[in-house]
Inverse folding.
């Protein structure tokens, strides 16, 4: 589904990605983890074609990223950024309907509206359909963005720290929604900070340090030594229902 | 969640959406009724007394007297110009606010109106357009200033777009830059006035006051054609503009080229503004205020916002023009002065309230 080969990227003179290589298969949930500034978001922006790839190659469905038009890419890749601020009021319905843009011409068809209503119903957001998105809580807003992604019906979904600033219930809810999409055969690449959630939901975990891949392994590939090296934090790891729970102990000076 | 419950919920959501749309259509319908009423009422407002039977006679009996002249050559063009200019300025404001993600944006606050006025003054004083008219009689004395107004408005647009692309540019920074541009172009216009002869000075001052009463049928036709073409374009693109509200990264992932869209939209909005200003003069705040009023009344799609803002802008300008003509009778105020009196306090309110407002 996705193949990233020798990807390097610089913001002005600062090189933020150095020779990144990984692949993602259909039905796989990959999480990118690493400290702030390690290049996680930049990778997503390169795959999403928001940033122009300078060195290396990204292939989607065995075709070069650059060979797709913007609209074709929108039909294949859905993306939720870290921060999404709306300057003006927009209803929940209109926000989710946005996901249908690449499938339609200048206006939404009846089918687009029906898909949108179905997504709203599935997400249990029916009571907020005509509510201004700016009046929703952080967790509800994130659900709306996931809804837009579902309406987009793309095969590859990219989410940049989707559980940031959310309470426990919403964190779990958002990850279950992502998992449900992956179970339907979609491929997800997600950046995250909560390592316990990462271990619970990921099929593969890619650790980044200073713009390079430090480790790439399955959901149980996290170790205290790796976390210590990448984050500079001592942790304890405990097994729980087949995944790892990570407890931070102290900062390594 | 069961399939049956999901289907039922889906139908309920679609019905609720339709209900919300109905409310917005009702708003559109109400605005059209109010515009019609205000336009008809305006036919009777002015220094000469006109009654229903006079209008009936002009329309149905083909009467060609003084009343015919007042209605056909003075009041009707003025009312229609107020309508189209108000609609155009409000639509430009709504588009600029949307593409710059900036609630304080409008042709007036971004300095585009002042740049257009400077362009007109420049053509009158420096390009000596009386000589041009002698050589090109078809120019009828106004088309060169209009072209110059448009060219200079584009300079302001390029500067605003450049500033808005800077990483740290906030809504306030862009408007501050707009204020700087306004001051610059106003200073330029004042300097031109200083060097102008009596006739040129009168023309320039006449330009800077917004007044829908000055247009001829031909000028109104030009404004209307430009308005219809650009409005059709904006309505066609409105879904894309709505997506810009989510930010450039999301827009890009939904297949929208935000940089290209922003450039074409700013150009189209400034053409519309420049054409209106070049024939009507500067009318501030209509473009800023009306989209906010509509957003406060109903939240719908971008297309509905554009249509209702335009209608509300037309209505506001017809009412403002009536007020300007009658409030200090026998003195007739230029409507631009009145809209500034009404709009400036609201602008200050928006700045103070900041994000809490929207």
């Amino acid at each position: 589904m996705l193949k990233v080969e020798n990807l390097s990227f610089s913001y002005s003179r600062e090189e933020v990605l150095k020779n990144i290589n990984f692949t993602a298969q259909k039905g796989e949930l990959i999480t990118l983890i690493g400290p702030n500034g390690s290049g996680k978001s930049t990778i997503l922006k390169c795959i999403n074609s928001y940033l122009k790839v300078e060195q290396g190659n990204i292939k989607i469905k065995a075709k070069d990223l650059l060979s797709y038009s913007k609209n074709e890419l929108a039909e294949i890749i859905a993306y939720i950024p870290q921060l999404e601020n709306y300057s003006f009021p927009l209803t929940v319905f209109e926000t989710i309907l946005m996901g249908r843009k690449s499938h339609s011409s200048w206006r939404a068809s009846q089918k687009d509206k029906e898909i949108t209503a179905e997504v709203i119903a599935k997400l249990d957001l029916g009571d907020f359909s005509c509510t201004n998105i700016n009046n929703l809580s952080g967790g509800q807003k994130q659900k709306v963005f996931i809804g837009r992604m579902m309406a987009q019906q793309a095969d590859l979904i990219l989410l940049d720290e989707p559980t940031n600033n959310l309470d426990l219930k919403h964190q779990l809810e958002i990850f279950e929604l992502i998992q449900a999409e992956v179970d339907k055969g979609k491929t997800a690449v997600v950046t995250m900070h909560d390592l316990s959630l990462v271990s619970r939901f990921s099929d593969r975990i890619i650790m980044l340090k200073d713009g390079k891949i430090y480790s790439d392994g399955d959901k149980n590939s996290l170790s205290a030594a790796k976390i210590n090296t990448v984050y500079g934090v001592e942790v304890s790891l405990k097994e729980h229902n087949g995944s790892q729970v990570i407890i931070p102990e102290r900062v390594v000076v | 969640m069961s399939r049956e419950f999901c289907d039922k919920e889906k139908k309920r959501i679609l019905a609720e959406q339709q209900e919300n749309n109905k409310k917005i259509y009702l708003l559109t319908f109400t605005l059209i009724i109010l515009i019609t009423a205000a336009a008809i009422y305006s036919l009777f407002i002015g220094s000469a007394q006109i009654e229903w039977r006079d209008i009936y006679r002009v329309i149905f009996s083909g009467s060609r007297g003084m009343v015919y002249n007042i209605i056909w050559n003075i009041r009707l063009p003025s009312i229609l110009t107020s309508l189209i200019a108000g609609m155009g300025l409000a639509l430009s404001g709504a588009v600029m606010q949307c593409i710059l993600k900036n609630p304080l944006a409008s042709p007036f606050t971004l300095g585009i109106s002042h740049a257009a006025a400077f362009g007109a003054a420049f053509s009158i004083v420096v390009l000596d357009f009386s000589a041009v008219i002698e050589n090109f009689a078809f120019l009828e004395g106004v088309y060169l200033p209009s072209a110059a107004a448009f060219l200079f408005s584009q300079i302001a647009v390029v500067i605003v777009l450049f500033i808005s692309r800077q990483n740290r540019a906030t809504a306030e920074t862009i408007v501050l830059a707009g204020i700087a541009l306004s001051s610059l172009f106003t200073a330029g216009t004042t300097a031109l006035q200083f060097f102008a002869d009596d006739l040129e000075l009168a023309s320039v001052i006449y330009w800077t006051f917004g007044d829908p009463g000055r247009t001829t049928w031909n000028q109104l036709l030009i404004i209307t054609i430009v308005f219809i073409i650009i409005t059709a374009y904006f309505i066609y693109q409105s879904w894309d503009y709505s997506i810009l509200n989510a930010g450039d990264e999301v827009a890009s992932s939904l297949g929208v080229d935000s940089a290209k869209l922003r450039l074409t939209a700013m150009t189209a909005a400034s053409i519309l503004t420049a054409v209106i200003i070049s024939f009507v003069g500067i009318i501030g705040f209509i473009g800023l205020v009306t989209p906010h009023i509509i957003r406060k009344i109903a939240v719908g799609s971008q297309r509905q916002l554009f249509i209702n803002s335009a209608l509300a802008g037309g209505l506001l300008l017809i009412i403002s023009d009536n007020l300007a003509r009658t409030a200090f009778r026998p003195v007739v105020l230029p409507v631009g002065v009145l809209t500034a009196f009404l709009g400036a306090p609201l602008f200050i309110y928006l700045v103070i309230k900041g994000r809490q407002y929207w």
Notes: Chain A touches chain B through 47 residues (CB under 8 Å). Chain A has a mean pLDDT of 91.
